[in-house]
C-alpha cells in the first residue's frame, strides 16, 4: 500500500495478525509494522500541525492580546513570563518543526519540546499567580494546551503523555526550588483531571487511527493481490494469443529449414532477441537450418559436433537455458559494418516429451531476457517440437520414396 501507508509491505503472517487485531479495541501491530505506524503517525502530526499552525497562532492571539491590553494588574509582568513567552516559544518550535525541511527527522522531538515548554510555563503561571485572575487565565491556558496536545498535534499518545508528565515534573521542581506554594487541590483541578480526560481522548483517537491504518494496509494488500491476478490473467491471455499466432505462423507443412526459419523469425520478433540460429540434431552432430542477424562467421557454421555451449543446453533438463557470460567471438551480431558481442544468449531446446532432443534454437540479445520472454519461449517449444517431428517425418518419407525409385 504505497500510496496510503508509505511503501509498507505486509506479508502473509502480518496480514493474519492484522485481521485478528481488527476485532480488538486496541490494535497492536506486530514486528516492524509498529515502527512503521509510529513513523506514519509522526508524518500525520507534521501534516496536521502544518495545516493548523496559523489557527493556533490566531487562537493564541485571541487569548493573550485581550489580557495584555485590557488587564491592569500588578502580576501582569509575571504572567508574561509564564503565560505569554513560553507559548511564543512553543509556537516557534512548532513553526520550525513543520516549515524547515532540514528538521524533518526531529519533528517528534520539536513538537514534544513545544508541548513541554508551553505546559511548564502555564503551570508555573497558575502556581505563581494562584488566587488571582491572571492565575485563572494561566490555568485555562494549561487546559487549552492539553486539548491541543492530544487532539490537534496528534503525536502518539504515549509520547504526548510523556512530555506532559515531564512538564509537570519540571514545573513542580522549579516551584519547590523557588519556594512557591503548591495547592494540590487546584493542581488536580486545572491539570490532573484535564490530563486524564485529554489522554483518554488521545488514546481513543489513536485507536481509531490504528484501525484505519490497519484497514488501509489490508485493503492495499487485497488491491495488490487483485492487481497481480489481473496482471497474471493479462499475461496468460497474451501468451495464449501469441501461441495461437505462432501456430498459424508455422502452419502449412513446411520443410524443416523453412519451419525453423519461421519459428526463429517469430521468436526474434516477440522477444528481446535481435539475432539467432536454428540447429537440427542428427547422428553426426548439429546442422544449422536457419539464421538471422548473425555475422558471416556465425552464419558459416553449417555443421558442428555435439559439444560446447549447444551440447550443454541440449543436455539440460529445462527447455530454456540462458548464458550470461557469452564467450568472445561466439554468435557475434552484424550491425551495419561492425560486429557486436551479444549481452546474453538464450537456448530453446526442441524435444518431444522426455525423448532425445530434436534440435535447438539459440537467440542472441543485447539486453537480458525477462521472465515473460522466457515463459513465452517455454510455451512455444512443445508446439514447435510437434511441428518439427511432422516435418522431419515428411522429409524422411520423401527421401525413402525417392530412393525406392
TrEMBL record:
Keywords: Membrane, Transmembrane, Transmembrane helix. Gene3D superfamilies: 3.30.450.40. Residues 258-388 form the GAF domain. The chain crosses the membrane at residues 53-71, 77-98, 110-127, 133-153, 160-182, 188-205. Pfam families: GAF_2. InterPro entries: GAF, GAF-like_dom_sf. This is GAF domain-containing protein. It comes from Alloalcanivorax gelatiniphagus.
Amino acid at each position: 500500500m504505497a500510496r496510503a501507508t508509505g511503501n509498507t509491505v505486509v506479508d502473509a503472517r502480518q496480514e493474519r495478525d492484522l485481521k485478528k487485531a481488527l476485532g480488538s479495541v486496541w490494535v497492536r501491530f506486530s514486528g516492524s509494522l509498529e515502527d512503521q505506524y509510529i513513523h506514519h503517525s509522526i508524518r500525520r502530526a507534521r501534516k496536521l500541525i502544518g495545516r493548523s499552525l496559523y489557527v493556533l497562532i490566531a487562537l493564541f492571539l485571541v487569548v493573550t492580546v485581550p489580557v495584555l491590553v485590557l488587564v491592569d494588574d500588578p502580576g501582569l509582568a509575571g504572567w508574561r513570563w509564564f503565560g505569554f513567552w513560553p507559548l511564543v516559544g512553543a509556537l516557534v518550535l512548532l513553526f520550525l518543526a513543520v516549515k524547515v525541511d532540514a528538521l524533518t527527522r526531529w519533528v517528534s522531538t520539536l513538537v514534544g519540546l513545544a508541548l513541554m515548554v508551553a505546559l511548564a510555563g502555564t503551570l508555573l503561571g497558575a502556581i505563581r499567580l494562584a488566587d488571582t485572575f491572571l492565575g485563572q487565565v494561566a490555568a485555562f491556558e494549561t487546559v487549552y494546551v492539553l486539548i491541543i496536545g492530544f487532539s490537534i498535534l496528534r503525536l502518539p499518545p504515549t509520547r504526548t503523555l510523556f512530555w506532559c508528565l515531564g512538564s509537570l515534573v519540571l514545573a513542580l521542581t522549579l516551584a519547590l526550588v523557588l519556594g512557591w506554594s503548591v495547592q494540590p487541590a487546584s493542581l488536580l483541578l486545572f491539570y490532573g483531571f484535564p490530563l486524564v480526560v485529554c489522554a483518554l481522548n488521545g488514546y481513543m483517537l489513536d485507536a481509531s487511527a490504528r484501525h484505519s491504518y490497519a484497514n488501509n494496509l489490508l485493503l492495499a494488500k487485497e488491491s495488490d493481490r487483485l492487481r497481480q491476478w489481473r496482471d497474471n490473467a493479462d499475461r496468460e491471455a497474451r501468451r495464449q494469443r501469441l501461441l495461437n499466432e505462432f501456430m498459424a505462423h508455422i502452419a502449412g507443412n513446411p520443410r524443416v529449414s523453412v519451419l525453423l526459419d519461421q519459428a526463429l523469425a517469430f521468436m526474434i520478433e516477440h522477444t528481446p532477441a535481435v539475432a539467432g540460429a536454428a540447429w537440427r540434431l542428427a547422428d553426426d552432430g548439429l546442422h544449422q537450418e536457419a539464421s538471422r542477424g548473425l555475422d558471416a562467421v556465425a552464419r558459416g557454421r553449417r555443421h558442428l559436433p555435439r559439444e560446447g555451449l549447444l551440447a550443454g543446453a541440449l543436455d539440460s533438463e529445462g527447455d530454456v537455458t540462458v548464458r550470461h557470460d557469452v564467450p568472445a567471438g561466439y554468435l557475434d551480431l552484424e550491425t551495419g559494418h561492425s560486429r557486436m558481442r551479444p549481452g546474453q544468449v538464450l537456448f530453446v531446446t526442441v524435444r518431444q516429451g522426455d525423448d532425445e532432443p530434436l534440435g535447438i534454437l539459440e537467440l542472441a540479445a543485447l539486453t537480458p531476457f525477462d521472465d515473460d520472454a522466457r515463459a513465452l519461449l517455454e510455451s512455444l517449444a512443445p508446439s514447435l517440437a510437434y511441428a518439427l517431428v511432422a516435418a522431419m517425418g515428411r522429409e524422411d518419407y520423401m527421401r525413402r520414396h525417392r530412393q525406392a525409385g
